[in-house]
Design brief:
single chain, alpha+beta, GMP Synthetase, Chain A, domain 3, 4 domains, 5-stranded antiparallel beta sheet, 4-stranded antiparallel beta sheet, 9 helices, 26% helix
Length: 297
C-alpha cells in the first residue's frame, strides 16, 4: 500500500501497489481518481498486512509515470494561466457575477481541465453550465469540470503571507483543515477582536488550535477571572490568569500580586463544603451515615 499526494501540500490518498512492488518514496505514479486519471508522487509506504476495513477498497496504481508523462504535465501546466484568463473573460461576457475564479488546472495529459471557483455565501448559487460549454468549445480536447471550493481552500491555492508575516500555514504544511472554534481563542486569552482571530480567508485562524490543548492542561487548578480567592497576602479577587506561567494575578485591597497555583486557596469551594458539612444529612436518623456530616439538632 502506498500513500500518494497530488499537490505539494495536499491530502495523502492510498492505493494498492501489489502490481508494482518496486515503487518507493519519491516515485511518480499514474492512478485513477474521482477526477479521472492523475499523476501523483509516492510520499509514504503503508504496511497493509491483513484485509482492508469492511466496505473499503483501494484502487490499484495503474503504472509508474515515465519521462514523457512528466514533460506533458509541465507543458499543460504552462497553459493554465491562459485558461484562467479566458475563463474570467467568458464569465464576464455572459454576465456571471458573484463568482471568483481562482485557478485553472489540467491533469497531466491535458484530457481534463478543472476550474476552481468560490461563490459569495450570502447569494443564491450561480449556474455555470453555459460557461463550461463555452470553455469546452475553446478547449475541445479536454473535459471541463467546474469545482467549487471554500474560503480556506482559496487561501491555500493563492498562498501568500499570513497576519504573523510568515507564509500561510495552509499553503506550506497543512494538508487538512481542523475544526476551529471561538472557545480556543478564549482558552488562550486571545483578544476576540475579529482582526486578531481571523485569517486572510475570513475564517478563524488555523493556528488557534496549535497550542489549545497545552493551554487547557495548563489552566487546570487555576481559578477563573473574577473569582474570590485566598492567597498568602489575604483574600482577593482574580483579575488575570497566566496559564503557561502557572499563576493568577490577584487584587488584594488594591494591591496586585502574582500568586502561583500552589498558593491559591479556593475560598468559595471551601465555604461550600463547610456549609454542606454543617447542614448534616438525612442518613443520620436512620443510621449508617459515613459522609462525615454532623447530626443537626
Amino acid at each position: 500500500m502506498l500513500g500518494v499526494r497530488f499537490y505539494q501540500v495536499g491530502k495523502v490518498y492510498h492505493f494498492d501497489s501489489a502490481a508494482h512492488p518496486l515503487l518507493g518514496k519519491g516515485d511518480r505514479v499514474i492512478v485513477d481518481t474521482k477526477r479521472g486519471r492523475q499523476l501523483g508522487e509516492v510520499v509514504s509506504i503503508v504496511d497493509a498486512a491483513g484485509p482492508a476495513p469492511r466496505g473499503m477498497t483501494y484502487k490499484p496504481i495503474v503504472r509508474p509515470a515515465n519521462p514523457a508523462d512528466l514533460m506533458m504535465r509541465e507543458e499543460w501546466q504552462a497553459q493554465e494561466l491562459d485558461c484562467l484568463i479566458n475563463c474570467r473573460e467568458k464569465a464576464a461576457g455572459i454576465g456571471i457575477k458573484g463568482v471568483k475564479f481562482i485557478k485553472a488546472e489540467y491533469n497531466y495529459d491535458g484530457s481534463q481541465l478543472s476550474i476552481f471557483y468560490n461563490e459569495d455565501e450570502d447569494k443564491p448559487p450561480v449556474k455555470l453550465d453555459r460557461l463550461a460549454q463555452n470553455l469546452e468549445q475553446i478547449y475541445p480536447n479536454a473535459t471541463v469540470y467546474m469545482q467549487q471550493i471554500g474560503p480556506r481552500d482559496v487561501a491555500k491555492l493563492l498562498g501568500g503571507y499570513g497576519a504573523c508575516s510568515g507564509p500561510r500555514c495552509c499553503s506550506t504544511f497543512l494538508t487538512e483543515f481542523s475544526p476551529i472554534s471561538i472557545k480556543m481563542a478564549k482558552a488562550q486569552g486571545i483578544s476576540l477582536n475579529q482582526e486578531d482571530i481571523t485569517g486572510m480567508c475570513g475564517r478563524l485562524r488555523c493556528c488557534l488550535i496549535y497550542e489549545y490543548e497545552q493551554y487547557v492542561e495548563a489552566r487546570k487548578g487555576l481559578p477563573k477571572m473574577g473569582k474570590r480567592i485566598g492567597t498568602p497576602h489575604g483574600i482577593g479577587r482574580v483579575i488575570d490568569v497566566q496559564p503557561l506561567r502557572g499563576l493568577a494575578v490577584v487584587d488584594v485591597e488594591g494591591e496586585r500580586y502574582e500568586v502561583t497555583r500552589e498558593d491559591l486557596q479556593p475560598l468559595e469551594e471551601l465555604e461550600a463544603l463547610k456549609r454542606k458539612a454543617a447542614a448534616g444529612c438525612s442518613k443520620h436518623e436512620g443510621g449508617g451515615c459515613d459522609c462525615g456530616a454532623k447530626k443537626t439538632s
